[in-house]
Amino acid sequence: WWEDRWGALAVDEGNRISGAAADQPSEQAAVDASIIDCKAHDWNGCKRGDVYRNQCVAVIASATTSETYGAKTEDAAIQKGLMGCKSKGLTNCHVFYNGCSLPVRVQ
After folding, report:
1. 101 three-class SS
2. Rounded to two decimals, what is the model's pTM?
3. How far is it, in rounded angstroms, from Cα 8 to Cα 62?
């Protein structure tokens, strides 16, 4: 059988992505680990951001905003995000963060 794996992003008081965690065994473990990562970088007001399960994500930032995109592979998430950013007419589209939390086969 397969066990789920979770990832999470934490945001600071300005709602900027400031922490991340991947490959966690539960949603709560992923959220907790992302907040710990955020606090380790001395950000203030660290709280839960986006959470994902059994997939890859890419956070695409532009000159004015950022958005999270999910897909089955890292490359697919990045390409989906960059295309989405550019299709909205945003400038300076780039990968801010990417990672995967894929299921693990258990015997």
Report:
1. strand
2. 0.89
3. 21
What DSSP string describes 3-65? E--EEEEEE-TTS-EEEEEEEESSHHHHHHHHHHHHHHTT-SS-EEEEEEESEEEEEEE-SS-
Residue for token pair 């999910």: 70
Name the nearest CA neighbour of 75 among 98, 101, 52, 104: 98
Residue 106's SS3 state is coil
Task: Measure CA 60 to chain center.
Answer: 10
In angstroms, the CA 37 to CA 8 distance is 11
57-98 pLDDT, tens digit each: 999 999 998 999 999 999 999 999 999 999 999 999 999 999
